[in-house]
Amino acid sequence: MPIFDQGYQHWDGKLSSHAWRWFTISARGARSQFKSRWVRLAILGAWIPAAVLATVLIAWGLIEQKSKLILPFLSLFHDLPESIMLDPRSYRVTIWTIAYQYFFLIEMFFSMILVLLVGPSLISRDIRFNAIPLYFSRPLRRFDYFAGKLGVIGFFLAAVAVVPALIAYVLGLCFSMDLTVVRDTARLMIASVGYGLIVVVSAGMLMLAISSLSRNSRYVGAFWVGIWFVSNVVGGALQGWVKASWCPLVSYTGNLLRINHVLLDTDSAWDQIGSLMDPRNRDAILVGFRGPTYPWYWSLGVLAGLLGISLCILTTRVKSLDRLK
Predict the structure, then answer these.
(1) In Å, what is the CA distance from 242 to each residue of 14, 220, 250, 284, 302?
(2) CA-CA distances (angstroms) from residue 296 to 231, 248, 293, 300?
(3) For 231-262, how does the pLDDT look when each residue is reduced to its tens digit (9 = 90+)?
(4) Cα(33)–Cα(220) distance, rounded to whole angstroms?
(5) Best CA proximity match to 44, nearest among 196, 189, 166, 164
(6) Amino acid 307: pLDDT
(7) pTM value?
């Protein structure tokens, strides 16, 4: 085949900053994964709890205003103590906190499903087809490569957790018709975003590390199910047998939810609800609603340890071009 030397050719394209090199990988990966029907179905299912959260916040705003629009639905709130219905604004933060607690509890399931659907092939496929040298033959650092792959997982996790939480928050503000709601609930918005970032970094890096260990994406998916589902089962079994406060530490999602409880301060919300109950039955009723009692920094330590292991695996398994053999 003849090779013709064409010499210099002027290029008129638009140059982008080197700081956004990772975004090209993320955008391409997100578009590719979004073509999957199962991914779209998981996102659609994840938005159902978000719609319920928004409905609760909107309804509470109407209750605070004593709007006539909420009168046909007041029967749904008949189980609430009378003091809450008489002065709903005093319990605004409590109701919002509990609503967000249940929202993130349900979204944890969809988040793990999305990581299972999106994550296994992100690095394992590159290893299988020997595509990593093609990445690093361009002006791309390992950090850009990892950030781009993490951005794919982050996009989908943000789509089912962070973005719906923020939309529900804005709708709650709009229907409250009271500027004090911003002062009272801004902490929940910040906590939601912070918790979303923790889930993205923790689950995303762990999945990338597992994906780099095998060329077969199915093995990676099975490993993720083991970490997610089996750890939950073992943690629940230990809690039933040992009945120690540290048992939820065995569960990966249990550690994530423990951080969520701290950021949202759900214990304070349930304490306020408990103050309205009969002291004789209060502890028995609230035991199923409150978070674990062990120190939250234990869970933070477990997540930090998993993050450190993930970084070690990634830096060992994925090498830059000058280190490839």
Answers:
(1) 62, 31, 13, 19, 20
(2) 18, 11, 8, 7
(3) 888 887 887 787 777 788 889 999 999 999 99
(4) 16
(5) 164
(6) 96
(7) 0.86
